[in-house]
Amino acid sequence: MSLPTQNRQWLTTQSGISNIALSSSSLPSPGPGEVLVKIHAVSLNYRDTEVIMGLYNHHSTTGSQSSALVPCSDMCGTILLSNSPRFKTGEKVLSIFNQTHLKGQVKAEHMKHGLGFPLDGVLQEYRVFDAEALVSKPPYLSDEEAATLPIAGLTAWMAVNGMRTLGQPGGKGEKVLIQGTGGVAISGLQIAKASGAEVIITSSSDEKLELAQNLGADKTINYKTNPEWEQEVLKMTDGEGVDIIFENGGAQTLRKSFDCIAFGGLINCIGYLSGKEDAMGDRTNTNVLALRRNVTLKGLLNGPRERLEEMLKFYDEKKINPVVDRVFSFEEAKEGFEYLFKGGHFGKVVVKVD
Ligand SMILES: NC(=O)c1ccc[n+]([C@@H]2O[C@H](COP(=O)([O-])OP(=O)(O)OC[C@H]3O[C@@H](n4cnc5c(N)ncnc54)[C@H](OP(=O)(O)O)[C@@H]3O)[C@@H](O)[C@H]2O)c1
């Protein structure tokens, strides 16, 4: 088989979306235990826009990356060359986010192996991976759909199942509140509904709430026209509150989550779409808020390979098709990041590489 000699890649100096640049390097070759992958589709995450804008600074354990970096972490591709018994040439694979996080609790060491920061990422035509840092792609999914799963899908899976025993997913009959209609949120809606849970979803847009209803959302709340949305959640649950919350908003939403979580519930602290800094003022301490309802407040940091494999088995059984809002060409990657950053999407935004 004749291989190309060049590899086109997008590079960021973490100085803004307008400054990302298309560049070219020589084709990398795999060492022992490694594979060369031809990348077909890359799905964009909120984190990628933060890295590109130099704003990804809330993890002290990731280390830093001062030279130009290939952004993005989530890809679907095909093995071109394999130096590992784990995969054969021609097999389709997905990346895992923290390349060394294969099982159990994430540790500081794993954070130094994040794709797209601090390691070079996947917005390029070819990349060498340690074979251990890849999983098989479920055959029923398109490349674009499958590329959405390593971060958005797995984070949502961990929010529903991460506190349960591996291999024993649950959720049936539970009430789940999901904030927003971005990548993690819509993956969460699909997973929670396929698990038999009841889902309440919030959005700033009635049109997006209608789309969420079409995907099975049981109840919807517009958080812009209904700023006291936590009271609505209580009304919708006969005053009990919800069992699981996807806390995607952060600064402006966490307090409200504490007011509509059920006793003994689980608040998954996932994102900070409404800001990272708490507003000043006389506020009840977060510890007291957790105590009042005997709540487990869990900081969520994606998940290990074993959980991604558990999730892919579930997707395959339930034949869940991730929601791809829009696909951009490789040359249009900049427009893709801008589109994602504006937040007009419902579900995932993907770059088709080949
Ligand atoms: N901890 C982890 O492992 C992990 C993994 C992935 C992502 N994250 C974080 O989780 C968050 C979501 O990531 P994503 O990739 O799903 O982002 P995304 O696709 O860019 O989500 C954007 C959507 O969030 C919603 N949103 C914005 N402000 C909101 C608010 N104040 N309250 C509720 N929803 C709001 C909007 O939905 P509407 O337009 O419907 O209002 C917006 O369209 C980000 O902060 C990201 O960094 C964390």
From TrEMBL:
Name this protein carries in UniProt: NAD(P)-binding protein
All residue ranges annotated as the Enoyl reductase (ER) domain in the record: 15-351
InterPro entries membership: ADH-like_C, ADH-like_N, ER, GroES-like_sf, NAD(P)-bd_dom_sf, Zinc_ADH-like
PANTHER family (UniProt xref): OXIDOREDUCTASE (EUROFUNG), PTHR45033
Pfam families: ADH_N, ADH_zinc_N
Gene3D superfamilies xrefs: Medium-chain alcohol dehydrogenases, catalytic domain, NAD(P)-binding Rossmann-like Domain
Organism name: Hyaloscypha bicolor E
MF annotations from Gene Ontology: oxidoreductase activity
SUPFAM superfamilies in UniProt: GroES-like (SSF50129), NAD(P)-binding Rossmann-fold domains (SSF51735)
